[in-house]
């Protein structure tokens, strides 16, 4: 215990000297088979190595941990987590795939899968997302609604709307209930591809399962219909939103104000309060050319 505390203090002291910090850590690692002592030091050395982009040293650590008689799964997966959080998704997936090959019957928690999927989407690596989803199915880890929301979002961003809708329709079969974020993601996907009418169908579906459309979904659909030039449908949505008891925010007020301008009904916008909100939202943006 004292040795572990001393190592932790030394790593903190030498956090700006990654080469020396690594030498200290490696020395302890090579003389100690009890990986419980690394519980405190590993979270310290990993960020140091990642910041210095000392990936070969991280690979060495990975392989050394794997060679132990009882490889510490939690420590090995923490390496993957640190790499993913730092945005190094290629390195993270490489380590993760190695662990899944060595320990196919011992998958990590869904939380790590979620992190890897999210980072893969941010780094525009759809192939990694596909592989992770297949591994999830193989490992039989219990899915979360958040997991499927991420996957649906990735499919929508890739314009694979049919696949996104298919996954959406099978959520309950996978033990997950769609939430308002699920509907918002799919509605945005439809609208971005010029299919606002498809997105509109989701409003009735939401209500049929006891969910109330939120302002984000309404604003997305209203903006999309305005963009398509379907002013009548946009106007109906504004009224429907109010019937649902939702108070317009600045975005809604701006959309409605512009909608009534387009319809030639300047006297019928949201009233004085709505006009003021619209004016405030543009007050510091300069003149519209």
Key words describing this protein structure:
289 residues, repeat, PPR_rpt, 16 helices, TPR-like_helical_dom_sf, Pentatricopeptide repeat-containing protein, 71% helix
Question: Would you mind describing this structure in some detail?
Answer:
By secondary structure, the chain is mostly helical. The chain is built from 16 helices and no strands. The C terminus is likely disordered.
Number of helices: 16
Strand content: under 5%
What gyration radius follows from the Cα positions, in whole Å?
Answer: 26 Å
Structural class: mainly alpha
Bulk shape: elongated
Secondary structure tally: strands: 0
Range of helix content: over 70%
Gap between N and C termini: 68 Å
Low-confidence parts: 266-280, 282-289
Q: Write down the overall mean pLDDT.
A: 86
Order of helices and strands: HHHHHHHHHHHHHHHH
Largest sheet: none
InterPro entries: PPR_rpt, TPR-like_helical_dom_sf
Keywords: Repeat
PPR repeats: 144-178, 179-213, 214-248
Family: Belongs to the PPR family. P subfamily.
